[in-house]
Amino acid sequence: MVWWSWTNPQPNPNERDIVVMEGLTEEEMHDREFAQLVQRCLMVDNLSFTITDAILCAALEQFGTVQSIKLLRDPKNPGKCIGTAIVEMETAQQADIIVKQMQEFMFMVGGMPRPARAYKATEAMFIDHPLRRRKSLELRFLTRGEPGAREAFQKREIAERHAFERNYIQQQQRIAEEELAMKQSENFQELRKKYESIKDNKEIDMLRQLYKLPDRVR
């Protein structure tokens, strides 16, 4: 498995033969590879903000082989996960199965009480992927006097307000999840101590023999 940050896929040693055999140009071959990549991928959101690549991989590998994962992060705080990931499976069929299962059943990842959601990937999700390098965006600055500038500035103000509200909600959710994770760890340690205190208790063995109970599984 390759843990990626949109790294280039390994080149196919027979790629040149495929191009010649199918009569495709390199540009057409590139477009086909990108389309196949999108079909193999899905977006998973509503994840815990403490999610890791390894936890998400372990949760999804029951459906197939996970090829790569990209956890999306806050541009202003790269170390902060926003609870969304793009996952590449081995085949498009495996990605379809995950999306179908997560739409029909509640699927929780990492023990957090929030059901994850899955959607098929779209080209727009791969804006920074090397295979999409030919598909560029045109960006420019707007001044308030230009046509359409008023609507653009209104949308920016709405987006900034939504971002502020989202960050506040995410902060509260993160605090609640960290407290829950701490309680789960404390409960586990407490149960572990209780088990260690009774596993070699001779009085329990005497009671077991007295009431003819089956041997304990060690």
**Shape summary:** flat
How much strand?
5-15%
Uncertain segments: 1-21
User: Based on DSSP secondary structure assignment, what is the total number of beta strands?
Assistant: 4
Over all CA atoms, what is the radius of gyration?
A: 25 Å
Helix segment tally: 6
Task: Please identify the oligomeric state.
Answer: single chain
Helix content: 40-55%
H/E element sequence = HHEHEEHEHH
Structural class: alpha+beta
Instruction: Give the integer mean of the pLDDT values.
Output: 78
Strand order of the largest sheet: 2-3-1-4
Largest sheet, if any?
Answer: 4 strands, antiparallel
Spatial gap, N to C terminus? 35 Å
Description:
- The radius of gyration is 25 Å and the shape is flat.
- Strands 2-3-1-4 form a 4-stranded antiparallel beta sheet.
- It has helices spanning 15-22, 26-40, 53-60, 92-104, 149-198, 202-210, and strands at 41-45, 66-74, 77-89, 117-120.
- Residues 1-21 have low confidence and may be disordered.
- It is an alpha+beta fold and 218 residues long.
- It is built from 6 helices and 4 strands.
